[in-house]
Design brief:
This protein is α/β, with parallel strands linked by helices and about 325 residues long. The protein has helices spanning about 35-45, 90, 135, 140-150, 165-175, 190-200, 225-235, 255-260, 275-285, 300-310, and strands spanning about 1-10, 10-15, 25-35, 55-65, 75-80, 80, 100-105, 115-120, 125, 160-165, 185, 200-205, 215-220, 235-245, 265-270, 290-295, 315. The protein contains 10 helices and 17 strands. It is globular.
């Protein structure tokens, strides 16, 4: 099969690889896969991953173990964490923190920038017939946004800011708007902020320090950059909440005294539930088509990655 392979930090190439096979897993023919900020960070060395990257995908199950034969032929998206099934975390149903987990395209498990990948059936979710591939491929990042609702109750009267006007920022903002109407996207790119406004979101440049009256109850950092967390802490109200969604290669030095003095709650937030994400996509509450700047063939990976660094969302059609 054709697959994109990271061979060392900063180096990715198209290779011919054997079709993957993992005992007990389903074999999935990938139809579309999305490039996200984490993929770009992984290419630069985040998580020290080598192999096939990519974890946002939609595909069709072509083979399955006998016990999971009903999945064959179904169009699916997939949760990316594969637990060991033996540890205390897995016993509690929290495979996302299993010490021995594999993570698709991130940790010891080849990912979706390939013609095929494997996952156990327990990780799969069927895509509704009414949903096209280009929408379904966003299920994983929208699920990550939905994780916020599992971690905290968002007051419908809260003032919410999303720091970061990229692909993930626009998804998080739309998801949060379903709980609290007052959501503002803060960013540095007028073209991306224009997309936010077209999606019905408030949007503004993030350079100015707000007055105390202009600070926010909830702030989400999705910049993917070290300075994002610092900015989030500048604009959150005392006793407010900062949700950290950025993963990047490197450190984010911050002054911790404002966190203590203002009694700010910090929440790290990662993967989330797929069923609510698919429901939001199916209902149209989260719109993704305006985010897609290009659908590329896997052979055009060099220009696709270059565009993904400056545009909103680039997909591979595989």
């Amino acid at each position: 099969m054709k697959a994109l392979v990271i061979t060392s930090p900063g180096t990715i190439e198209l290779q011919d690889l054997p079709t993957p096979a993992r005992a007990g897993d389903c074999l999935i023919r990938v139809r579309h896969a999305g490039i996200c900020g984490t993929d770009l960070q992984i290419l630069e060395g985040y998580a020290e991953f080598t192999g096939v990257p990519g974890h946002e995908f939609v595909g069709v199950v072509e083979q399955a173990p006998p016990a999971d034969a009903a999945w064959v032929g179904k169009r699916v998206v997939g949760e990316i964490n594969v637990g060991c099934h033996h540890c205390d975390w897995c016993a509690r149903g929290i495979k996302e923190h299993c010490d021995n987990r594999n993570v698709v395209g991130i940790r010891q498990h080849d990912g979706a920038f390939a013609e095929y990948l494997t996952l156990p059936a327990v990780n799969l979710h069927e895509v509704p017939d009414s949903m096209d591939d280009e929408t379904a491929v966003f299920a994983e990042p929208v699920a990550a946004a939905c994780r916020i609702f599992e971690q905290m109750t968002v007051d419908p009267h809260a003032r919410v800011a999303v720091v970061g006007d990229g692909r993930m920022g626009l998804l998080v903002a739309q998801v949060l708007k379903t709980a609290a109407p007052d959501v503002t996207v803060l960013g540095r790119h007028e073209s991306k902020l224009a997309v936010a406004r077209a999606l019905g979101l408030a949007a503004a440049l993030s350079d100015d320090r707000p007055s105390s009256a202009g600070r926010f109850d909830v702030v989400v950092d999705v910049t993917g950059r070290p300075e994002g967390l610092r900015r989030a802490l500048e604009i959150v109200k005392p006793r407010g909440t900062v949700i950290m969604k950025s993963t990047f290669h490197g450190e984010a030095p911050i002054s911790t005294w404002p966190v203590v003095v203002d009694e700010v709650t910090l929440i790290g937030s990662r993967c989330g539930p797929f069923r609510p994400a698919l429901d939001l996509l199916a209902s149209g509450a989260v719109q993704v088509k305006p985010l897609i700047s290009r659908v590329a063939r896997i052979d055009d990976y060099e220009s696709a990655f270059a565009e993904a660094r400056r545009a909103l969302k680039v997909l591979f059609e595989i």
